[in-house]
Design brief:
322 residues, 22 strands, alpha+beta
């Protein structure tokens, strides 16, 4: 049998409530610290929801106040909303590099069955091809690759029957050469929903889907953002787009470009430095021939080497290829 000092027990019992209250207050203070924010989309707007420590009981506390919801990029989805113009950003200049964020880890295939890319983003027959062509048959379903809202529906020049969808990060996707359109302007759409049927309208050689990805009117190589394979992955939740990935002249439509992702600003300088190559001029070489070989613009080679476009190259001369 244990003997307990009554004075000591009394003191402990008096102190215990104070200890419990103090501990609870300390825990509550600790739990009320926001550790990070989770980005979600609410009615077309990107908001940041505060994330509390794991043991925090949300249902004991009051509802999260409006002050806790940090609104950001709220103009990306609504700026220059225009149902009449295919490109409402025609008079705006886009500064490179720019950042894109994605809330989805994967996207929906724009066609049923296996995706077969028949022509890629890049220079094609002396003209810029600003999207990719995906094989399909006339009448096949064409689907939205991400959630969004229909901004433009109509017949647009070489694109033929066209649908443009704006997504919640400001990105737009273009679906062209459709034989039939199944949606209307200002209609909300979920990824995977049918928006039309494949066809050959506009300037199309055979039935296919011409898919473009644009940001503020500027086309981006779709394969830089999305992995057009069976697993249909978005390449990263954050990507920086440089001028190279938004200029068809830097790519060839007949082959897939070497995909090197820029996930941070620091990546851009580091990767571009690593990609610098030295080419030694051979007999018969010209700036045009070298530019075509590496998928570059002549002006880019001239800039990197302090050359003029009419410079005569010498055999053995070293040229920086970036």
């Amino acid at each position: 049998m244990f003997l307990i000092n009554k004075k000591l027990l009394t003191s402990f019992l008096i102190f215990l409530p104070f200890f419990i209250v103090s501990a609870q207050e300390t825990l509550a203070q600790k739990e009320n610290i926001v550790v990070e924010h989770k980005k979600i989309v609410v009615q077309g707007k990107i908001v940041c929801l505060p994330i509390y420590p794991k043991n925090y009981n949300y249902f004991v506390e009051d509802e999260i106040s409006d002050d806790d919801l940090l609104m950001e990029n709220i103009e990306e989805f609504t700026t220059n909303w225009d149902n009449q113009q295919f490109n409402p950003y025609w008079d705006e200049q886009l500064t490179f590099p720019f950042q894109l964020e994605f809330k989805d880890e994967d996207f929906s295939s724009p066609v049923d069955g296996k995706m077969v890319v028949t022509s890629r983003y890049g220079w094609r027959r002396g003209r810029p091809h600003q999207g990719i062509d995906i094989d399909l048959h006339v009448g096949d379903s064409v689907r939205s690759i991400l959630d969004g809202k229909i901004r433009y529906v109509g017949y647009h020049g070489g694109h033929g029957n066209t649908v443009v969808i704006r997504h919640h990060n400001g990105l737009e996707t273009v679906y062209a050469h459709l034989s039939e359109i199944l949606v209307k302007e200002n209609e909300d759409i979920k990824k995977g929903e049918a928006i039309g049927k494949g066809g050959v309208t506009g300037n199309a050689r055979g039935s296919h889907l011409h898919l473009e990805v644009r940001y503020k009117g500027k086309s981006i190589n779709p394969e830089y953002l999305f992995e057009f394979a069976n697993d249909t992955k978005v390449r990263s939740d954050v990507l920086f787009v440089t001028k190279k990935w938004a200029t068809p002249r830097y790519h060839k439509s007949t082959r897939k470009s070497n995909i090197v992702l820029h996930k941070t600003i620091e990546d851009i300088a580091k990767i571009e430095e690593e990609q610098k190559k030295i080419y030694t001029v051979r007999k018969g070489d010209t700036l045009s021939r070298i530019a075509n070989k590496y998928g570059l613009a002549i002006s880019e080679i001239c800039k990197n080497n302090a050359l003029r476009s009419n410079s005569v190259l010498k055999i053995g001369q070293q040229i920086i290829i970036n």
